[in-house]
Amino acid sequence: MKYLNVLALLAVSFAFADPPSNFSGWEKVFEDNFDGTSLDKSKWNPTYNWGPTHNHRAYCAEENVIVSDGTLKLKGEKKTHPDAKGRTAKFNGKEIPVDYTSGAIDTKGKFEVKYGYIEGRFKAPSQKGTWPAFWTLQDGWPPEIDILEIPASRKQHHYYLHYTDPSWYSSHGSAWDHEASFGGHKDDDVDRSAGFHNYGVEWDEGTLSFYFDDKRFASYNRPTEIKQLAAQYIIVNLAIGGWAGDDIDITTDKPAYFEADWVRVWQAKPAKPDTVRIMSMNFGTCMVRTAEDKLALGDCNSDAAVVTITPLSSTTYRINFGDMSIDTPNESTDAGITMGLYKWNGGGHQKVVMEKQSGYEGSVVRMKMQHSSMYLRATTDGERVVQSWADDWEWNQMWRLLGKDDVVPSKDTTKKDTSITDTGKTALGNFALVYGTSVHYADNRLFVELGSSFVNGANVRILDLQGREVIRKQATHTAAFDVCSLASGMYHVVVQNKNRTDIRRFKK
Prior knowledge:
Strand content: 35-45%
């Protein structure tokens, strides 16, 4: 079913904050493991597609592109290539000699990609004066994505997006002499020349995230600049001199090698929007679209509660009510603002990051807006949806994704239990999936009476607010728990069989 498909994809994102090793939910669209004894020319050009020289002192020759022992080796040598005599290159507006020989490959005309996750595993050369790089281009410059550049310290690598300054781009189009950039360099104690390391970039229509050894360390939500990127081809090269400077350690008997173990590209598997309802775990009512295109809480069975969820990347989603998307009015980063609905424009104030909550059956999530890192929560009166701080009461930020085949409560079955309070702040409603299960707490004893849906018994679990299981028991009709040892606070009671899950709360 569609619903199961989207939950499977969501589960991938929830399970891995960083790209997983097997990329379930993604489709591998390019791979080269550099097996064999020669470059696969169905995938790569054996030098820069525009010619053998660029903005550094090496002539990039095909014979310096070596494939052996399962790796690509770009060899940098202290010698002037026979075809480079008399050639010069330009760096920072200055003419520089082309008096070294090295290697470069690219996928121009063979593979290009727009959006996805691009990653390679590389070992940098140790010598000063070498400038290994892993990057992407399209026709014209800028833009350019630099995934890996090492011009100096081997314990540092650079990453950037180069683009045309938007003020020029909007009125003139791209221009190399109006280039700007964002990004930086990652510094640590890891010697990139001592072994192989993974370098990657995840790219969607508004965000670039950079990864080192499968851990995201930098992310930029810059849709205006990122939209300048068309489909990109991939370049791997070993530059000599140029940005790396003229203090070059390569000697006649000590060439440099930039090695690649593999290069791979994934894209999120194509998915049609999947229909769900988003139910407040506290009130048992669902997000609904109002006539004023605001986001409120209402009857889960209403047509206004039907939403579609479309994956944008491994971490972000677009949530639509009909033709309108969840939107933060005026791109506000203020707590308490009522969420609205607006035509999709791809900004971070419309992108929703979902965080799966452990210890619950089904798909229970917290959702935060990408631009503000604030979470969507139900107001304590059970009427509106607002954005709020991460340390706000977590139970009001819990949402359950209900599929089309799930039984959902109607609004008139929602009951409020004003004896249960949010740690003394505000009277709150008891969880409202009313199937007959009841919970009674008194004198350090908790009594759970199973509803009619559990005639064959059920598994009863008590969870703390972090979703951690503290007690478990199998029950047929009723279950009694001695909760004397539990710390004071709020707990969830989860009653489940193979067909249904009820959730209740109690305060000790």
